[in-house]
Amino acid sequence: MVSSSGENTRIVRDFQCDSPIIGYESGLGQVLLNLLINAAQALHDTPPTAREIQILTYQTQDAIAVEVRDTGSGIHPDKIAHIFEPFFTTKSPDVGTGLGLTISRKLMERMGGTLEVAPREIRGTCVTLHLKPAR
Fold this sequence. Notes:
- It is built from three helices and six strands; from the N terminus they run E-E-H-E-E-H-H-E-E.
- By secondary structure, it is of the alpha+beta class.
- The chain has one domain: Histidine kinase-like ATPase, C-terminal domain (Heat Shock Protein 90, 2-Layer Sandwich).
- The termini are far apart.
- Helices cover 24% and strands 28% of the residues.
């Protein structure tokens, strides 16, 4: 369990793939840490019994995918187009700088991967990393 605001959050892990990837540990660690912090912060207004962060890994035809999903309030569709712009944030000024997703996307590009963000159908956000498998 993780606590972002004094309440417990359920962490669900579903690791279907543990294949090696092309990348570097510190960069991937920074990306994942940023995504987990964002997910935890997104749960602030979610009822405690509905707070959940899911971390999934799986292999697609040409990539290793890592998803971080949350059950938070989600990102309004008209803001999705701006979330990778430097200093754009959906958080209050005392919570975020608006650089986390910008930096994370650049780190993923340097590793030859991609980072995509999409609202979930019911509630929350899903961030998907696509990384090149090591051959």
